[in-house]
Amino acid sequence: MTTTIQENGNQLIASFNGRLDTAAAVPTTEAVKPLMDAANREIILDCSQLEYISSSGLRIFLSIRKEAAAHGSKVIVKNINSDIRQVFMMTGFISLFEIQ
Amino acid sequence: MDLHCQMILEEYQEALPVLEEMKTKVLQMLREALERNNIIVTAIEARVKTENSLAGKLALKGQKYATLADITDILGARIVTFYTDDVDRIAAITEQLFEIDWENSVDKRKLHQLDSFGYNSLHYICRLPGYEYRFELQLRTTLQHAWAAINHDTGYKSGVEIPREYMRQMNRLAGMLEMVDDEFSRIRTEINNYRRRVQHLVQNGRLDDVSLDGDTFRSYLQAKPLDALNKRIAAINQAEIMETPLIRYLRVFKAFGCNTLGDVDRLIHQYEDDAYRLARHQLGNTDLDIISSAVGIQNICIVYILRTGGGKIGLNRLFDTLNGHNTQNEQLAELTYEQARNLPFMKQ
Fold first, then answer.
1. Who among B279, B322, B335 is closest to A86 (CB)?
2. Cys-Cys crosslink for A1: which of A18, A81, B29, B220, Cβ 3.0 to 4.6 Å?
């Protein structure tokens, strides 16, 4: 599991690659720290290479969203596969995120 | 400038640190008091009179003042409120916070002549316990503040600088703003009364008497009608429930034809068991141990659509309403339909 963060104008794009499971949660939490302090930016969570997300992964997404809201930033989840979409759906978080 | 006025100016220069200290304390005390009393205002501000401004004042009427302590607006504070009612509430709070010099305080709102309009604020001359100098506190509404600023800009205050015709037009506007201020206060009071009535009806279970709107739905949600269902769903995987706003479901229930909170409540109770079965089917073979508090209401809506023959199109509409129109909602509707299709309620 790898996480890379890039800047594109006012956007911060975090790209996830692999399986975001319990084992990957600790390094991913560390990797997304720059997103937590971003103020008034658009944060894109690009999931085009994300194969799987567990509860720990959901918690990371939720804390990014919470911190972003506190700093006036907006979070958009992009390119999720149908399994991950199902996870968002089943847990009731689908309408909490802007998913494109 | 004569010697007397120069002495007052020198006193001012020496007193400046104390006046700045007073300013900080006054602002802090006012902010804390407003917060304690849940009063939201447009602005709280304070300023120590500048040396130039004081010199101007002394040049005009310096002999009126024996010492700097006689100048009551050497420090000025202002609170701008949204509502006229709040001016009176803050005035009452101020009377408890500071010593009021009643002799020099003016409620200009009460000074209007019967044959003229006026539009002024409440001015209190206050003393901060332990300090020699007094300060002026102005309390006014946002509209009064706008009026005062424009009034000042036109030079209207002096009364003789603009022709009577324009003065009359300004007075008409003042009267209108005063009415608007009163109307805002009246509407706020009515809204608060309505909310109290609704809460009373919800608490007493008279849900059929309450029409469905944003306010009433919020009151209904405060009674946590979905808690039991969410806890049942959470128990499937011993999941943590994360609170999520549910107000967006108002539009969904409206689209379902619910007109009262009673309609919503019946719909929830009618479909909650099937909503639980759907959740158990979805979550039972996963290890997802975090759910949103929206999961119960979401599943109720899904079950309602499927049981009333709405099918995939109905689900797509639901997701469009909740998430905004999005081409991926179609995929989500398909997915949800496939998950639910073998559940017992689909065969009823």
1. B335
2. A18
Query: Which residues on B lie below 8 Å from A82 (Cβ)?
Result: 331, 335
- How far is the CA of B247 from the CAs of B45, B161, B250, B252, B303, in angstroms? 36, 55, 6, 10, 19
**Coil, strand or helix: which one is B127?**
strand
Select the residue from B291, B297, B329 to test the A interface by mutation, using most A Cβ atoms within 10 A.
B291
pLDDT digits (tens, 9 = 90+) for B15-73: 999 999 999 999 999 999 999 999 999 999 999 999 999 988 888 887 888 889 999 99
- Scanning the structure block, which residue is given the tokens 């009535």? B197
Domains parsed from chain B with CATH numbers: 3-162 (3.30.460.10), 224-347 (no CATH)
ipTM of the complex: 0.89
B298/A54 touch (CB, cutoff 8 Å), yes or no: no
**In chain A, which residues have their Cβ closer than 8 Å to the Cβ of B296?**
92
- The number of folded domains in chain A is 1
Q: Angle at CA B242, nearest 5°, toward A28 and B322?
A: 95
* pTM for the whole structure: 0.66
- Tokens 């800047």: give the residue: A7
The residue count for chain A: 100
Domain span at residue A84? 2-99
Closest CB to A96: pick one of B292, B319, B326: B292
Cα–Cα distance list, B281 to A14, B237, B277, B302, B308 (Å): 33, 12, 6, 14, 20
